[in-house]
């Protein structure tokens, strides 16, 4: 490995494609151009890059810089955070971690069964903090629709921020039956969302279960989105559709995998629990995106 390159791991969380990049000990960052280059290669295509930097705050283990596949920076990525935890747990033998992100502090723990819980923080409901372009006293149902006025295809979403803005559209059938790849870009970039938004279709199947599919801001259709699952679970409880602990089946993930989301009443925090999976490791140039795989003897679950 040359001085210009760093180690990375290709991973996924419920199919959400993640690159965990080890930037510790360096002052530079993964460039937007490198992100776009990596995203354009089928072997390294990703939904989010989770770049691990040296901690900036006392009491934290790392600063996580998150990039979308279009090179823009994201505030939060729950599935990616689980991947970071698995990588660092394999490297250090530790089970608990505290990370700083643009969205704030995240605490996470790897359990004995290999699943990982991430404290995603408190949901934000105030219209100007989500943010929305118009004032709504009640953001559990805002005025927004796609389709004819008298027969909209999607309408009246719940809006919430989980460190990033989300709009949850409630549907009465399998979210996979909707043409989200057509509606997603229109809704993500709707004037209602000055910072754009993650767009999720959610079907409640039981008081403690729902099925979701997400068009992710800056990434498009993804196989899974952890913060969107949290946003949907919180919005389900907030609107009386579900309880505060929900199994969220991600319709687009391989084999329809699920996350467990709990919106804790005692402290208002949202905890997401689910798996992460290592695929392969390599090295890359964070300035250009040039990369190569590690040899089998060098490969492992660690991002370091």
Order of helices and strands: EEHEEEHEEEEEEEHEEEHEEEEE
Question: Largest sheet, if any?
Answer: 18 strands, mixed
Q: What is the H level of CATH, i.e. the homologous superfamily of the largest domain? A: Diaminopimelate Epimerase, Chain A, domain 1
Total DSSP helices: 4
> What does the average pLDDT come to?
94
Spatial gap, N to C terminus? 12 Å
Q: Can you tell me the overall shape?
A: globular
CATH class of the largest domain: Alpha Beta
Roughly what fraction of the amino acids lie in strands?
A: 35-45%
What structural category arises from helix and sheet content? alpha+beta
Radius of gyration, whole Å: 19 Å
Number of strands: 20
Low-confidence stretches: 299-304
* Tally of structural domains: 2
Word description of this protein:
- It is a single chain.
- The protein folds into two domains: 6-121 and 276-293, Diaminopimelate Epimerase, Chain A, domain 1, CATH 3.10.310.10; 145-268, Roll (Diaminopimelate Epimerase, Chain A, domain 1), CATH 3.10.310.
- The strands form two sheets. It has an 18-stranded mixed beta sheet that branches.
- A hairpin with a 7-residue loop joins β16 (245-250) and β17 (258-263).
- The longest helix has 15 residues, at 78-92.
- It is α+β, with helices and mostly antiparallel strands.
- It is globular and about 60 Å long.
- The chain has helices spanning 32-39, 78-92, 180-188, 226-238, and strands spanning 6-13, 16-22, 48-53, 62-68, 73-74, 96-101, 104-110, 116-119, 145-146, 154-155, 158-161, 165-170, 198-206, 209-216, 220-221, 245-250, 258-263, 270-274, 277-284, 291-293.
- Residues 299-304 have low confidence and may be disordered.
- It is 15% helix and 36% strand.
């Amino acid at each position: 490995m040359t001085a210009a390159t760093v180690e990375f791991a290709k991973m996924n969380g419920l199919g959400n494609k993640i690159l965990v990049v080890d930037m510790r000990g360096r002052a530079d960052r993964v460039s937007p151009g490198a992100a776009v280059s990596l995203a354009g290669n089928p072997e390294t295509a990703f939904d989010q890059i989770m770049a691990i930097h040296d901690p900036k705050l006392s009491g934290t283990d790392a600063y996580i810089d998150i990039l979308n596949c279009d090179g823009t920076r994201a505030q939060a990525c729950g599935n990616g955070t689980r991947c970071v935890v698995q990588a660092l747990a394999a490297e250090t033998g530790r089970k608990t971690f505290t990370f700083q992100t643009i969205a704030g502090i995240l605490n996470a723990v790897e359990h004995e069964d290999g699943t990982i819980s991430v404290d995603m923080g408190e949901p934000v409901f105030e219209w100007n903090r989500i943010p929305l372009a118009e004032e709504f006293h009640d953001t559990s149902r805002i005025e927004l629709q796609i389709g004819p006025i008298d027969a909209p295809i999607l309408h009246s979403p719940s809006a919430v921020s989980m460190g990033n803005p989300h709009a949850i559209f409630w549907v009465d059938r399998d979210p996979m039956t909707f043409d989200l790849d057509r509606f997603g870009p229109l809704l993500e970039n709707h004037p209602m969302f000055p910072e754009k938004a993650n767009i999720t279709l959610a079907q409640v199947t039981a008081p403690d279960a729902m099925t979701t599919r997400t068009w992710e801001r800056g990434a498009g259709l993804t196989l899974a989105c952890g913060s969107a699952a949290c946003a949907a679970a919180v919005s389900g409880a907030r609107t009386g559709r579900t309880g505060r602990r929900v199994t969220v089946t991600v319709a687009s993930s391989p084999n329809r995998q699920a996350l467990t989301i709990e919106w804790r009443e005692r402290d208002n925090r949202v905890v997401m629990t689910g798996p992460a999976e290592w695929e392969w490791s390599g090295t890359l140039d964070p300035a250009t995106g040039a990369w190569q795989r590690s040899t089998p003897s060098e490969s492992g679950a660690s991002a370091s």
